[in-house]
Amino acid sequence: MQLPQDFINQMQELLDKDELQRFLAAMDVPSPTSIRINSAKADREQLGCSQAACVPWCSDGVYLVERPSFTLDPLFHAGAYYVQEASSMFIAHLLHEYVGEADVTAIDLCAAPGGKSTLLQSCLSAGSTLIANEIMPKRAWILRENLSKWGGDNVVVTNNRPEDFRKFSEAFDLILCDVPCSGEGMFRKDEGAIHDWSLQNVEQCAERQRDIVATIWDCLRPGGLMIYSTCTYNTHEDEENVRWIRDELGADVLPCLAKPEWNVVGNLLSDDFDCCHFFPHRIQGEGFFCAILRKHGAESDRSSSPRSITAKQLQTLRILPNPLEDYQSSVAIVEVDQSAALRYLRGEALVLGSDVPKGVVTIAYQGLALGPVKNIGSRANNLYPKEWRIRKQI
């Protein structure tokens, strides 16, 4: 892999000579494939990965020996699992340690395509509320699709700018800021990230990240938690920004509580706060950084937590509807085989058995709902959202 010399020079300042060589060698090794199972819908046995290696910091995460065609797996479209980079699943560990079973009001501010939002939905209690937000319209609709398939009725998907949430003063117990970054940790998976990288872009990203955090900070309750994460290595976007949040906005940086055997790396600067770096020569995964902070101030009275977000506040947001919501009350469920499931996902009409009632019914594969059809007897007209349909040849 041809890496920018400025990037190599930057890494020389962070890693000793031997570790730098191991890092550079790892950059030429193919990325591992990992998925996170939706335990509300499936288990390892159903997905055929009961013997697969586990992601150490996420109980629902597994590594696959080879990368299958996820597009042609109906269970993927049913939301039985999410294809997610293993390092970023570390968020599940932080949620387990610091949130647990508490009911919270949370926001994933930069949420598309949905990996961390689906993780939040699975890890947070049923009594919690999650807003999954994405500023870019096309990416927001991808986020809506992934969360619709994942399931759960405690998630609101929005398409708003960070500043649009200023009306939500001290409304959130938890804010996930997985901020847009220079993408160094994705170099193995995305050659475009290499092409776009520059020292100037690193500085621009660091400044933009501070702007995003500062804009949303007043929305976090005193005593509330912020998870700050990037998919990059440099300390300008990572440690230096965490230090800035701590000193300028007022927060304590909490221990990440990573186990030694996980082989993650702590603070790369001389600061005394804890954080986690994931390097591909040390773990099975891509580059990732995260820290968790607690906002200064007396904790809000949690006896009535989570605080309800009012209808008036929600009216100020652009909320994206769930395309399947109008059909989720369908009582009749028709189980189909893989061939019929794939035809359905391509948008084709189906012919169902004579015992299937007329009207809207739900097509299911291995017990998991895929979506609706309107059965008129001679055929069942496909109601699967057009923008979700498979285009790949079967």
What does this structure look like?
It is built from eleven helices and 15 strands. It has two domains: 87-314, Rossmann fold (3-Layer(aba) Sandwich), CATH 3.40.50; 325-388, Nuclear Transport Factor 2, Chain: A, CATH 3.10.450.720. The strands form three sheets. Strands 4, 5, 6, 7, 8, 9, 10 and 11 form an eight-stranded mixed β-sheet that branches. It has a four-stranded mixed β-sheet with strand order 12-13-14-15. The mean pLDDT is 94. By secondary structure, the protein is an alpha/beta fold. Helix 6 links the parallel strand 5 and strand 6 (155-158). It has helices at residues 5-14, 17-26, 74-77, 90-98, 115-123, 137-150, 191-196, 199-216, 239-250, 311-314, 338-345; strands at 33-37, 61-64, 81-83, 105-108, 129-133, 155-158, 172-178, 220-230, 251-254, 276-278, 288-295, 333-335, 359-365, 368-375, 380-382. Helix 4 (90-98) packs parallel to helix 5 (115-123) and helix 8 (199-216) runs parallel beside helix 9 (239-250). 26% of the residues lie in helices and 20% in strands.
Give a short overview.
By secondary structure, the protein is of the alpha/beta class. The protein is built from eleven helices and 15 strands.
Keywords:
394 residues, alpha/beta, Rossmann fold, Nuclear Transport Factor 2, Chain: A, 2 domains, 8-stranded mixed beta sheet, 4-stranded mixed beta sheet, 11 helices, 26% helix
